[in-house]
Amino acid sequence: MIRKFTTKGKLTLKGFLSFLVILTMVRQFFLGNYGNIFLGILTLILFTIPVIVDRRLDVDIPNALQAVILIFIFSAEILGEIGAFYMRIPIWDTILHTTNGFLMAAIGFCLIDFFNRSEKFSIQMSPLSVTLVAFCFSMTTAVIWEFFEFSMDWFFHTDMQKDWIIHDIYSVTLNPEMKNIPIHIPVESVLINGKDLGVGGYLDIGLIDTMKDMIVNFIGAVVFSFIGFIYLKERGKGSIAPKFIPVVRNSEKDSEKD
Question: 84 and 73 share a domain?
């Protein structure tokens, strides 16, 4: 009764998104953007991950969580990359990183809570400890992803860490009196190879984007950690957490035997 998002609704959503992905791939083929066809294939493969996890690992992933995962993948790969929503909608990347923080905390919560309840592992953690570990799991995945973005930009000359235009600098290094006091320097123009960028500000490469991504991931992780903590304190009584927390079926069976 808690999981109001039905299996039929999940399958309908998956079918609709898969149809849109295929249409996008056909369009990209006629446009000659063959690299985007690969992204479409990758998206369809990623769509199968919840099913594989469900069948191979015997993990029950709530329909609501599967729906969020499907929408997240579609929004990142098809809308974000192929549809250039990252450029057209400034907050698009922020929304996805916030969602990622939420999802990774849910996955971390599931893993730790499973070990905590299983008789096969001598781990007994309090609800607060489980919540903290899930939060740290989410933040660790965010850090690893930022490492990946930096590596792609550095070695393969991509621009995953998007540039930002800033109009003011507060610097200690540029203090003419060599004091440890930051001075304010407004940036009105920047020259590169003798040419004005024409953006009226300084081009920051990656730093602000990385820190912004980490902050919003932090927010998403905190939100789910709070929900998960309440769920653990009042096992099974929450109305939100069960919709987003994967459950290991073997663990459920063990609990029933007890």
Answer: yes
Domain that holds residue 152: 7-161+206-257
Q: Is residue 2 part of a domain?
A: no
Q: Is 147 inside any structural domain?
A: yes
Total domain count for the chain? Answer: 2
Q: How far apart are CA 129 and CA 125, in angstroms?
A: 6
Least confident of 32-36, 163-167, 211-215: 163-167
Side chain identity, residue 115: F
pLDDT digits (tens, 9 = 90+) for 128-144: 888 999 999 999 999 99
Do the beta carbons of residue 21 and residue 75 sit within 8 Å? no
**Are both 116 and 187 inside the same structural domain?**
no
- For residues 109 and 244, give the distance between their C-alpha atoms in angstroms, rounded to a whole number: 10
My answer on whether 132 and 121 are in the same domain is yes
Same domain (yes/no): 156, 173? no
User: In the predicted model, what is the mean pLDDT of residues 97-117?
Assistant: 85
pTM: 0.83
Q: What are the tokens at 199? A: 């953006």
Instruction: Please report, for residues 57, 114, 178, 215, the alpha-carbon distance to residue 108 in angstroms, rounded to integers and kept in the order given.
Output: 15, 10, 48, 18
Examine residue 228 and state whether it is found in any structural domain, yes or no: yes
